[in-house]
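Re: nicotinamide-adenine-dinucleotide structure - here you go.
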Amino acid sequence: MEYRILGRTGLRVSIIGYGASPLGNVFSETESDECTRAVHSAIDRGINFFDVSPYYGRTLAEERLGLALRGKRDKVHLATKCGRYGETSFDFSAERVTRSIEESLKRLRTDCVDLLQAHDVEFGDVDQIVGETLPAMRELQASGKCRFIGITGYPPEALREAASRHDVDTILSYCRYNLMITDLDDVLTPLCRSRGIGLINASPLHMRLLTDTGAPEWHPAPMEVREAGRKAAELCRAAGASISEVALRFCLDHPHVATTLVGMSKQRHVETNIRAMSFQTDPALVVQLDHLFAPVKNTSWPHGWDEPGLRGR
Ligand code: NAD
């Protein structure tokens, strides 16, 4: 395993990070024992950064991760989140954030997490995030409940605004840097570089769109993006490669991202994703994929309260 320093936190994190949302059955059902095997296998292979949230599976992912980490807590850097608890359930108040960490620590069976992140800040009122949420999180840091604090979300502008108005140690961005989209580098990479903020890139498989299985039903990408993903998977198969390996490899090559979080709940995915570290994509395939993705490159979708279905709620 390769390791990089996560910005000013100084944490030495594996370049492949363990995304624990699938432990909450977010994508599909996985048996608890298989989740435990996946977590143990990841630790055995040197993965030492784990990201979870009370939101994933409405606390199920934290519960399962806490169980799987019994006796292994000292081998990993553990990140969780606060502020998001359901699809439309958010509470970024100081009181909720303070209660939230206590609940997470209990589920995760630890007395301190390495990183506490405000989850999906674009759904909050930015004045509250910078004036109340992040200061409360700094107090939790001072009291020893978390070692560092960060923010997560989808629109780069929302993350930039929050990080420009209140100091944070890390930023987690998702679905903004992978084979289909690279606009992470327009806004967030320069910000993180100039401020020493640790940069975490999540969803290298574009939330399963860049896999042979394809996107889940709830995936927010427009049809033409899903279709391009399906064709890319075919193209890779025909070339004797796997789209997930090509996609993960692409993300691991980013020069400034400290860790790329890939969601896993199955041991076989852990093994395949570890293999991506030594995989080299055939340059001819890269050219073909670039050509295929060109019409949909950098397509994003409305998010936050502008998301279809959430508008006006
Ligand atoms: P992802 O792109 O990592 O895709 C995960 C999906 O791909 C899962 O269904 C998983 O089972 C499947 N998969 C993994 N490896 C595979 C392989 N080798 N072959 C085929 N399928 C494979 O998307 P993600 O899980 O959404 O993102 C990774 C992690 O980043 C999350 O688990 C979470 O920890 C974090 N994240 C955070 C936020 C946020 O804070 N707002 C948002 C998105 C993701």
